[in-house]
Design brief:
It contains 13 helices and no strands. With about 280 residues, it is mainly alpha-helical.
Length: about 280
């Protein structure tokens, strides 16, 4: 892959972030392509949190949808999306591979609760799952099992993010935990808004953390047979997320009233040692 030209308007992962360190683990040309993919992902996903008027949000989403379809004729207006389209063509990807992102935002604009795990996983798969699948393809992975594993990793990363950002999301009246799981533990959405980690809420979060960790571990394991040069960024993201879940557990699941993070140095160490272990 030839290094794509990154437009000045393209937002790069901020230094210290998980994606920043993960992208350091791949060659420059691949890194540039992934930077474009992540920029488009963030721009489209931001509709959910930055646009309060439902009509305006749907209009913005429709515009992005049309832009993605226009990639087939190389007629997209957005410079970052247009550059990403060229990367897609280099790897034999169709613009339709981006449409899961549109679906995920559309789901967010229509609902703020998920009845069960199957519904939540479907939502995660449409957005983060499809983006990680596209990332794997841009890294040069072509085997169906490898792409499937990357998609599962995307789902697991999103499940982890939901646990970490539970307090922030609940404050916006969004509960990214299955309602049947809340009911099973005797927890109501209004209980989460109290920002107190009661024993039932702690049990709920322990259950969801265990499920997310299992999903991360399974996806990472499925990626290990493939070349480290192509999987290292994905494995780094998974390893950092697993460490974050452990940190959340050590903090006694205090995600309702505080932001639990890993230090940049720790993320750097995890991403480097993860890569070194894969190369050994």
């Amino acid at each position: 892959m030839h290094p794509p030209q990154i437009p000045d308007s393209c937002a790069k992962p901020p230094p210290g972030s998980s994606t920043y360190y993960a992208l350091q683990r791949c060659p420059p040309a691949r890194r540039a392509a992934l930077t474009l993919l992540l920029d488009v992902h963030v721009r489209v996903r931001s509709i959910v949190t930055t646009v309060s008027d439902p009509g305006v949000a749907q209009a913005k989403l429709a515009w992005w949808h049309a832009q993605m379809l226009a990639l087939d004729q190389d007629q997209a207006e957005h410079p970052c999306l247009r550059a990403l389209g060229r990367c897609f063509r280099d790897q034999g990807l169709r613009p339709q591979a981006l449409l899961g992102l549109i679906e995920s935002v559309d789901i967010d604009l229509r609902q703020n609760r998920w009845m069960d795990r199957a519904a939540l996983v479907h939502y995660c798969r449409a957005g983060s799952g499809q983006t990680l699948r596209n990332a794997a393809a841009l890294l040069g992975l072509t085997a169906r099992p490898a792409l499937d594993a990357a998609e599962e990793l995307g789902v697991a990363l999103k499940l982890t993010s939901h646990i970490r950002h539970l307090g922030r999301d609940v404050a916006q009246d969004r509960v990214y935990l299955p309602l049947d799981a809340l009911q099973r533990h005797g927890v109501k959405a209004v209980d989460l808004q109290q920002r107190v980690v009661s024993p039932p809420i702690r049990a709920l979060l322990q259950e969801q953390t265990t499920l997310a960790r299992t999903a991360l571990s399974t996806a990472r394991g499925a990626l290990t047979p493939y070349p480290a040069a192509q999987t290292a960024p994905l494995l780094a993201l998974g390893a950092i997320s697993e460490a974050l879940l452990s940190e959340i557990e050590r903090a006694d699941f205090a995600v309702l009233h505080q932001r639990i993070s890993l230090t940049p140095l720790r993320k750097l160490w995890i991403s480097r040692t993860c890569t070194l272990r894969r190369r050994s």
